[in-house]
Amino acid sequence: MRLFVGISPSDDVRRSLVRMQDFLSRHGISGTYLTPENLHMTLTFIGAYPEPDPVLGAMEEAAFEPFEIVYDHIGTFRESIIWGGTEPCEPLETLVKRLRHSLAGADIPFDRSAFTPHFTLARHADFSHGIPSAEIVPVPMIVDQMILFRSDRGKNGMVYTPIGAVNARY
Question: Which residues, including other chains, have CB under 8 Å from residue 75's CB and lie 6 or more apart?
C-alpha cells in the first residue's frame, strides 16, 4: 500500500486552485492537471508500507491545535510541476516536524526531503515559455485535520483515497 499524510484544501481554497488550473490551461500551459478531488498538500510521503494503523498512531502522537494557512501564490518544481503555495506558517512547519518525529520514533520510513507547503496543480507541465502572470486573491483556510491517504494508479492517473484522519485538538 502506498501512503502519505496530507491535508485537503477547504472548499474555498479548492475553488481557487481549480480557477488557477483553468487560468493556466487557457494560457497554454499543458500538463496533467490534478482533478479537484485529488488536490491536497502532502505533509509527509511514506511510500510503500503494509499497515495503516501504525501510521495513524504516529499521526495521533503528533497532536496539534487548529491553525490558519493562506493560499496566495504559485510556484514550480523542476521543469514539470506547477503548484499553489501558502505563505509561511510556523504552526504548519511545527506540525510537519512533530509528525516526522513521531513516524521516525515508530520506525516508519518516510521521505525526508525538505518540506515545501504546496498544493500540486499540474504534473508533466510544459511552462518552457514561462508562467503567465496572475493575480491571486489570498484565500485562508483552517487546518484542523490531517489525513492518511492511500495512493493508487488508476486508468486515468493517480487516485488518492482517505483511509484515516486525525483531528486537531480544540
Answer: 82, 83, 85, 118
Give the bridge partners for 126, in sequence order: 30
pLDDT (tens digit, 9 = 90+) per residue, 63-82?
999 999 999 999 998 889 99
Distance from C-alpha of 129 to C-alpha of 64, rounded to nearest angstrom: 42
Mean pLDDT value of segment 32-59: 96
Query: Residue 169 and residue 156: Cα distance in Å, rounded?
Result: 37
Looking from the CA of 108 toward its CB, the CA atoms found within 13 Å total 27
Of 3.90.1140.10, 3.10.180.10, 3.40.1500.10, 3.40.50.1260, which CATH number belongs to 2-167? 3.90.1140.10
